[in-house]
Amino acid sequence: MNLWVFDLDGTLITSGIDYARAVFHWELMFINRMEHRAPHYDKFVPDFLGLLRESEKELFKTMRAHRKRFPTSMVEAYRGLCRNFGMSVDPEIERETWEIGVSALSEETYRNRGMLPGAEEALAFLQERGDLIYCVTAGDPVVQWMKWRGYNLRRFFPSQREYRVIWWDKLRTLKKLRKLHRDKAAIMVGDSIGSDLIPAAKAGYLPIYIPHPSVWDHGELEKEPPPGSRRFLQITQIVSEYQSLIRPTG
Fold first, then answer.
1. Do residue 241 and residue 192 come from a single domain?
2. Which of 168, 220, 173 is nearest to 193 (CA)?
3. Which domain holds residue 139?
4. Among 43, 64, 211, 232, who pairs with 237 as Cys (CB 3.0-4.6 Å)?
5. Whole-structure pTM over 0.85, yes or no?
6. Cross-referenced SUPFAM superfamilies, in alphabetical order (predicted)?
């Protein structure tokens, strides 16, 4: 029996497309609302994206993964756009901007979308072997439990014992799990060097790095995995490389 800990977003499921969809919806809403008053799209679209990126970076320092951060950033970006183009803030557009930002986080969307390719196969493989599997995810608890319900993650992580939601730093939780299962090989699988792999290495796990095609970077991105890490292109490589991964660690 071995200990496996998985990150959630970008490792088992995808969420970046939800933010992208919200941005596209906002652009259409803005054009429809402004009509002939709208600035040319090759001006306001890059401006809005730049303002949104800067707002996200700034709010991330204080709000981290709070569910209100993204809609707040959307509203701030809209207000900044108005300043840049000498327009008055329209309360109705501002309200719709907030609602579009909130729509990026939807349990209904999660219910209608599958996990990342190979994720279910890899988790089922580990279950069949009797290994212990946990998910340690950083984020707003309300949103992360929406994902747990929407993706039916109870199949693999039945309760809050196996599905652990933290606000940010995973090191403490990883150390606790390692201490509980110190006699087992311990492996951590994630897509973030800074929030997954580095704390995993510090806690005595074998870190497995599976980079996601879209990187959510708030300016604090770590570039190099810790020594001894394994790098996979697909999560299903856990199945083919299983025997080489379960050597004792820590």
1. yes
2. 220
3. 3-14+111-245
4. 232
5. yes
6. HAD-like
